[in-house]
Amino acid sequence: MIDVPQHNFAGRSALILHRSDDAIARVVERCDRLGISAAGHRRDLPTAEAMAADMVVIDVDTGHDAALPWPAGEAPMPVIGLIGSESPGRLGWALRQNVDAFLPLSALGNLFSALVIAHATFERRQDLARERAEVAHLRAGRLDVVRAVIALAADGENEALALKQLRTMAMVGRTSLEDAARAVLAAGQTHRKGQR
Q1: Same domain (yes/no): 110, 34
Q2: Which of 22, 26, 69, 87 could join 47 in a cystine, given CB atoms 3.0 to 4.6 angstroms apart?
Q3: What is the rounded CA–CA span in Å between residue 94 and residue 99?
Q4: Gene3D superfamilies given for it (predicted)?
């Protein structure tokens, strides 16, 4: 069973990037009904204003990388793509931008659904990015664990006892094995500097 999040967008802000004043007005009107403060732009999004927005609605048909103040695919908030025509090239651009949900201009009444989907997709992508960063951090720490075990074993212990000592340090310090290893290595460097 899929858990459907309960969303209330009242009090949030949205920026709309679209070439048509009429489309902007229609999206702003839909946002007003949901309690979202919305502002429209016909050209590039202003950096400071865009980075402060809670969500962005962009025109997929005329969107281009330079119109957005972040690297392609790295929006710091949920992005909803408004679709006028279903050109494969334009949809490909939107996918490279990691647009979180799509909404046909002819179906603006479904804005709430698009917002729920966009926010859930964005949160899932953020969670995945955090997990990947954590895995990369742990992988990078493997060599530090080996170095710390070697450093501890150099003080007269064998490697098995050194690893057990490192595990104990991690458990007592309530930290990861890798972070405990980094602490051992840092303490060793400080000690060596003090001997000079």
Answers
A1: yes
A2: 69
A3: 6
A4: 3.40.50.2300
Q: Do 57 and 118 share a structural domain?
A: yes
Whole-Å CA distances, 122 to 89, 106, 179: 23, 24, 30
Whole-number Å distance between alpha carbons of 129 and 132? 5
Judge whether 3 lies within some domain.
Answer: no
- CA-based nearest residue to 159, from 142, 173, 175, 146: 146
HEC secondary structure over 85-153? CCCHHHHHHHHHCCCCEEEEHHHHHHHHHHHHHHHHHHHHHHHHHHHHHHHHHHHHHHHHHHHHHHHHH
What is the pTM for the complete model shown? 0.72
pLDDT band at 190 (very low <50, low <70, confident <90, very high): low
**Do 33 and 122 lie in a common domain?**
yes
Residue 125, judged by CB atoms within 10 A of its CB (0-12, 13-18, 19+), counts as: middle
Do 65 and 17 belong together in one domain? yes
Predicted local distance difference test score (pLDDT) of residue 1: 45
Tokens representing 67? 């119109």
Condensed to tens digits (0 to 9), the pLDDT of residues 172-187 reads 999 989 999 999 999 8
Say if residue 37 is in the same domain as residue 113.
yes
